[in-house]
Amino acid sequence: MNAETEKHDCTEVLHELYHFLDGECTEAKKAQIRQHLEDCPPCFEAFDFEAEIKAYVSTKCREQATDDLRARIADAIGHEPST
Questions:
Q1: pTM, whole model, 2 decimals?
Q2: Does the residue 50 lie in any domain?
Q3: Count of structural domains, the chain
Q4: What is the pLDDT along the chain (83 residues), one digit of tens a residue?
Q5: ∠71-75-79 over CA atoms, to 5°?
Q6: Is residue 82 part of a domain?
Q7: Can you give the residue range of the structural domain that contains 39?
Q8: 46-69 burial string, b = 16+ CB within 10 Å, else e?
Q9: Does residue 7 lie within any of the structural domains?
């Protein structure tokens, strides 16, 4: 694998990292990303950092948004608020 191919693979993996962490990838894509992370220490470091951030945020951000805030957000993005 040449340096340009590796750079492209890293860019793709880093781009898909959030989907991977959120479990939003296909099984094939998960396997591809896992393999890349095993073989690429810099990408694994990025993954490890993002996983730690995600875990930290999930433990600290437990409050529910108020109905008013939900309605304002829905209005801002042009969606009907869910009830």
A1: 0.61
A2: yes
A3: 1
A4: 545 456 668 999 999 998 999 999 999 999 999 999 999 999 999 999 999 998 988 887 777 778 898 899 888 988 765 55
A5: 95
A6: no
A7: 3-77
A8: bbeeeeeeeeeeeeeeeeeeeeee
A9: yes
